[in-house]
Amino acid sequence: MNKNKLILEHCPNFYKIINFEYFEDDLITAKLLKIYRRFIFDADISDSATINRVEEIDKVLGKYVVDYSFRKEMKHSLSNLQIKKSNNILLDLVDNLIAIFNRYEEGTTRRIYISRWI
Q1: Deepest in the core among 83, 94, 100, 117, taking most CB within 10 A?
Q2: 20: how many CB neighbours lie within 10 A of its CB?
């Protein structure tokens, strides 16, 4: 089976992400989509850690194209992002995108209190 088809089996949000319409002057979204394509199609299928990252980045960008408040938070976080020089900058960037998503999920999860009626 083709490598791209195997990768796309792990990316349920692929077509929603790729077909996302954004403004021409939105360079951050354009770069994120370019990074997404490059990362998932250069991924090693035999490595389970890489496949987990592919699934995570698909979930992150799926949330990015659907949720305006997350998109706004992501753009703000990316403007302050600093990445150290390393062997694989793309991998470090993907890990940082996943970390931003995890922080957002922790911060926006609401605690539900059971109210007691008197």
Answers
A1: 94
A2: 16
What is residue 1's three-state secondary structure? coil
Quote the radius of gyration of the chain (alpha carbons, Å): 16
Residue 19: name the closest of 83, 55, 87, 66 by CA.
Answer: 66
Q: How far apart are CA 85 and CA 88, in angstroms?
A: 8
CA dihedral sign, ordered 86, 88, 90, 91:
negative
Q: Which of 81, 75, 39, 78 is nearest to 58 (CA)?
A: 39
User: Residue for token digits 């020089």?
Assistant: 85
Q: What gap in Å lies between CA 114 and CA 53, rounded to an integer?
A: 36
pLDDT tens digits for 51-79? Answer: 999 999 999 999 999 999 999 999 999 88
- Paired tokens of 109: 């999860």
pTM surpassing 0.90?
no
Residue given tokens 């770069």 in the structure block: 31
CA atoms within 13 A on the CB side of 93: 15
Percentage above 70 pLDDT, the chain = 91
Structure-block tokens of residue 94: 């993907």
